[in-house]
Amino acid sequence: MPELPEVETIRRQLQRVLPGRRLGSVLRVDPAVLDGVAREDLAGRLPGRSIEDLDRRGKYIVGRLSGELYLTIHLGMTGSLRVLTGAGPVGHERLAVRLDLERGAAGDSVERLAFIDARKFGRVRLTAGAPWSGLVRLGPDAWRGDWTADWLEERLRSRKAGIKSVLLEQKVMAGIGNIYADEILFAAGIDPRRSAGSLRSMEVKKLAESIRRRLDDGVRLRGCSISDYVDARGRSGSFQDELRAYGRHGQACVDCGSTLRRVVIAGRGTAYCPKCQR
DNA sequence: CCCAAGTCCTGGTTGC
DNA sequence: TGCAACCAGGACTTGG
Question: A134-159 in b/e burial notation, b at 16+ Cβ within 10 A?
């Protein structure tokens, strides 16, 4: 499940190889992943554009193309974005665009940029002049944003909803999903069911530190591969070996040995330690 | 049949 | 009282 660290891993890899390259013909488009753009429009406007750079906002990747055109991509829950060489299997590819070199006679390039997503939760938006307008609803980036613990405390104060539910709200902070929410709350020693507004100043401070640190761990280990996540080169990350809470219900807490419990919060499976997390 | 989960939507509630 | 913000839960999707 691509959350901020997985998306950042993919962005970094693509940023190393894509800028300066030119998009060729659109080889495949599944209209199910498009939003606000027709299949023909995409196929008509991408060829010939060069990729200038790749940015990230929360879980979204924004590709800036020549001519003030932007591709805003969300990987959903099983999506990946890869540079593939040769014919290769098509399988779950929802969108594939041929890649050409910017200069020279490379019209017969055999590489392609592919958006692969078995469950069709991912979305691709094409806009002119600015990235997709939906991004303005996002809060500051959870990892790189310039928010502070004081700001977070103020933001949580008025909220009665559970702290985990609020961490999952992209309009509060962008980038945290179910896996990192469980890891962050475990690291902070906070019960995921606690009302967000009930956290004391010291607890919010610990929470803020845990958000930065745990996301940083994820980025450093190139993401978390539970079921199908792979980076832009098709490699797995290794954060899954560092999980202390997510998916560990029924197993022993790495800190105190208690059995981790499972509850459902915001419709999501949630694992926590009843002794360490208060 | 249940579970996985990110985002959007809905209907009901809260509080300023 | 009016209305915006808030909140919980469901829909969507496919594979294990």
Answer: bbeebbbbbbbbebebeebbebbeeb
